[in-house]
């Protein structure tokens, strides 16, 4: 019969540790995360409207309430 301490030793011996290579580009991930946000100061961010304007540029205004568009583009979407 095995004691509790002997059981713990056997479990520790059976544990197989796999070491996998982790290669994460944190700078690239940070840039991608900030792509659709506007820095508001004090470590806070706000989502920006990513719809295209008539001149082909991204709108960039702050999003309206809990939508993914600014007030103008959200209003235009409800008209359609």
Structure report:
By secondary structure, this protein is of the alpha+beta class. The chain has helices at 4-14, 26-34, 71-79; strands at 37-41, 44-47. It has a domain at 24-77. 36% of the residues lie in helices and 11% in strands. Strands 1-2 form a two-stranded antiparallel sheet. The longest helix is centred in the first third of the chain and has 11 residues, at 4-14. The mean pLDDT is 83.
Topology:
Blueprint: H1 4-14, H2 26-34, E1 37-41, E2 44-47, H3 71-79
Antiparallel strand pairs: 1-2
Count of distinct strands:
2
Subunit arrangement of the protein: single chain
Enumerate the strands of the largest sheet in spatial order, edge to edge or round the barrel: 1-2
Q: What does the main sheet amount to?
A: 2 strands, antiparallel
- Morphology: elongated
List keywords for this structure.
80 residues; alpha+beta; 36% helix
């Amino acid at each position: 019969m095995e004691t509790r301490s002997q059981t713990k030793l056997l479990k520790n011996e059976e544990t197989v540790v796999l070491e996998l290579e982790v290669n994460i580009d944190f700078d690239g991930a940070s840039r991608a995360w900030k792509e659709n946000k506007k820095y508001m100061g004090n470590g806070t961010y706000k989502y920006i409207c990513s719809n295209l304007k008539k001149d082909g540029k991204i709108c960039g205004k702050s999003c309206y309430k809990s939508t993914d568009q600014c007030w103008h583009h959200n209003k235009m979407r409800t008209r359609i």
